[in-house]
User: What shape does this take?
Amino acid sequence: MEYSKRTDLILPEYGRNIQQMVDHCVAIENRENRTKCANTIISIMGNMFPYLRDVNDFKHKLWDHLAIMSDFKLDIDYPYEVYRKENLFTKPNRIPYKNSRIHYMHYGRTLEQMIDKAVSFPEGEEKNQLLLLIANHMKKCFLTWNKESVSDEKIFKDLHELSNGQLNLNQDLLKLIESKDILSRNKPKINKNNNNNKKNNGRK
Assistant: This one.
């Protein structure tokens, strides 16, 4: 019955004994003795997690936790700037997401960014090799979403469109990976040993 009446722990990982020590520390009237008690509690808390001592700001985190467990009522000179109660539940800043539309979902935004970079490349063999890599990657992406054959002409047309007409590949000079080769790589491999075991088990 006594257990059912106990209050919830603020930081359960430290256990009820540490919480009771903190409560006792808060109640100490003499400030110097209260500070000594707080330092003792910090040492005990640190000994509970010795494998975390190499973590950056480990001691600082302990003092933050002590302040939190005291419900920010522990009046001492902290060796670090600890959390304030009003900052404990502040929401993080929103991550800005781009709202620009992706032209083709199966290619994705990253590939569109790669195409934008390729547009700015100076003409030459390096740019040609880059465009060949991008076109082959587009073909792989297309076949990942659409399990059918796709022509090189379609890929070159999409590349031309995504580059706003700035990239034109000569289909007669460039040959992309065959669709059947890409599809065969995407197929899950069958374990022959498992198949043989199933056949042998079926004969028994």
User: Anything to note?
Assistant: The chain has a mean pLDDT of 82. Residues 108-186 form one domain.
